[in-house]
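Fold Annotation — chain and its backbone
Next Lines — sequence and tokenised fold

***
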Amino acid sequence: MKYAANMKEKGKREKPKILITGGLSFIFSYVTEYFVKKGWEVTVIDNCSVGSNPHIYDGSFTLHKVDFCTKKGYEIAVREDPDYFIHAAARTDVDYSILHPLETLKNNALSTFNAFEAARAMDNLHKFMYVATDEVYGDHNKRKDEQEALDPRNPYSSSKAIGSLMRKSYENTYPQLANKIVELRSCNCFGHRQDVTKIIPQLIRSAITGQVVPIHNEGRGYREFIYVENIPTIVELLLQEGTGVYNVSGYGITVRNLVKKVQKVLGVPINTTPATRVGMDEYYKMDDTRLRLLGWRPRFAFEKGLRLTYEKTEKALGAKKRSSKTKK
């Protein structure tokens, strides 16, 4: 990144420092590993609970096992005073949010408030990224760009839309944050280490183990998918050049056709069963022209991502089986 070279000229740190809340989560564990490999000073704040991957911690980055909803989490962030700050910590399970709306709202809104407050208290901050979701646009059968109105349709997406409104208000209210905030609204990511309740991990595991996958609402739902290892380069680009909101779209397909696609790419039959789900949106479609105008293109195509996920999942499951046999 250009800014990394500039910091030496300004007499700042020898290498850029980045702080990531939720840096052990499925998606952002890859971002953490990416910046570690680039030689950055990486600090993660993560409560190491649901959806976390604490096993990736190898001492190559600083880890604070703290709930970012707390005062302690806020104080650590301010004390770390990074050049780049990403707030990705959140409860992201839609089904859980439907059953526990208040807990989801408290967690996601309060942690995001702490993030914005910490950002405006940091002295060396160059860029702050708030990680939202495509679900803030609601159910829509047309491609939405970043100017579209927010229309969240479940407790999870509502809690993330609150953060989107916070971004706008903090940009407007606090001059020190002007042109320093970028918001990421991504479609569904998939890859190894993803929670097994998500659709692609279920399909992959069905291909490996034969488990039955519930398909909601006859598979009519339309989603976009992007392989997770594409995300770190997007994050890096936006930390360097981004301002405002950026959509990240991907390979668009109905769930019904996704099952067929996975079977075709992997050459393995998938076992499914009909199911229903309340609060389910039919369509999520986004326009990511704004991101592509910055020159970004995906490194991993959808099919390649599927194969990589299959290979890594098969290896991980095989390792677990061998381990259990060894114990016997």
Remarks:
- The domain at 2-189+225-249+284-300 is CATH 3.40.50.720 (Rossmann fold).
